[in-house]
Known about the structure:
Layout: H1 6-27, E1 41-44, E2 52-56, E3 61-67, E4 70-75, E5 87-89, E6 92-94, E7 101-103, E8 109-111, E9 122-126, E10 129-133
Antiparallel strand pairs: 1-10, 2-3, 3-4, 5-6, 6-7, 7-8, 9-10
Amino acid sequence: MTPPDRRLFLAAAGLAAASTAGLAGCSNKPGLDMNKPKEPVTLPVGDVPEGGGVILKGKGYVVTQPKGGEYRAFNSTCPHAGCEVTSVAENKIICGCHNSQFNLDDGSVLQGPATSGLGKAKLEKDGDTLTVSG
Length: 134
């Protein structure tokens, strides 16, 4: 039996490295540093549409209004791959990286690949102002 060809070995090693890099790229996309503490954010209640929501891009939060006058806040980092969610539409919070979808009212998973929901954030309403914090 002859030893493996050097080119075959290098090709296999390169393929393994590329596969690992692809998986690593999926683990924490261009979202937020999940270990970095998030600063409180304020916004007017009028910025959050009824039956929809607003993503506070780069701030780490998504705020929703499932029903008139009822507000919710969640961590905007998708638990599947660390991407920041990209949109709120049709009563869902959607992550554009792999199309995970979350419930507008409680952040629970509606469609995977995410297997856990969005983390809840603290939300306070003072008059016409909402304050969201970790």
